[in-house]
Amino acid sequence: MARRRRPRRSGALGELPPLKILAQIAIIQAILYASLTALMFFTERVAGRDFSFNLVFGWSAIRGDTTDGWLTAFVWWLAAGLVGAASIVYLVGRSKLVLDFAATLHAVHLCVVTLTHSFPANLAWWATMAVSTGTALALGTWGCRHRELQPISFGGAAGNGGGGGGGSGSTTTNGGSNGGGVGASAAEGDEEQGFSRGRGRGRGRDGAGEYEMVPFGKTGENSRQD
């Protein structure tokens, strides 16, 4: 006797395999660093200073006692909070996973900063990370829910329109087939919407089937005569 295969378990692992999750994390992280590098380069060139990758992969530039430190924190918030949220909405699109991806985005950056420089010891850096994480979480959740609530279009409307066009065309060419053409188009429309027309119970639109009216008056008189 052949061994029966166990059905595949539904859930997060079935919908999002580990390789796909890792690929999404890598893409979102790359988008973050690309946007952060572009914004930092533009800001430094406008200010007349030389660009350094310490602004991207370091923590000492984010300070609360200088204007340049506040500007660096604002640029980081734009990149991680706004661009990061948009990337999560576009690539992930699930509101239940926004917190995981937003936290992972900043956790990976913390590891990168620690490996390239040292463990962050600046309170302004931690405050900036907290604000950008909250912004990415709020905007990402809102965007994913808005995307999830969008109406899903099926092919029923197009099929009904095509069936109706075919029925009207048959009525213009042959007057005798008018009822047949309309009936066929209506039946096709019911099948597209998930209904089927027939005489069995539960086959109609209301699920109660079709019935035939019987004159009760004549039936009663016949029973009395008998």
What can be said about this structure in brief?
With 226 residues, the chain is mostly helical. The protein is built from nine helices and no strands.
Describe the structure.
The chain is mostly helical and 226 residues long. The chain has a domain at 16-146. It is 67% helix and 0% strand. The protein has helices at 12-15, 18-47, 54-57, 67-91, 98-116, 123-148, 156-173, 178-192, 216-225. Helix 4 packs across helix 5 and helix 7 packs antiparallel against helix 8. The longest helix has 30 residues, at 18-47. It is elongated, with a radius of gyration of 32 Å.
Segments where pLDDT lies below 50 for 5+ residues? 161-183, 198-202
| Spatial separation of the terminal alpha carbons | 65 Å
Rg over CA atoms, rounded to whole Å, is 32 Å
Total strands: the figure is: 0
Structural class: mainly alpha
Q: What fraction, in percent, of the residue positions are helical?
A: 55-70%
- What general form does the structure show? elongated
**Nearest-integer average pLDDT:** 75
What's the SSE pattern?
A: HHHHHHHHH
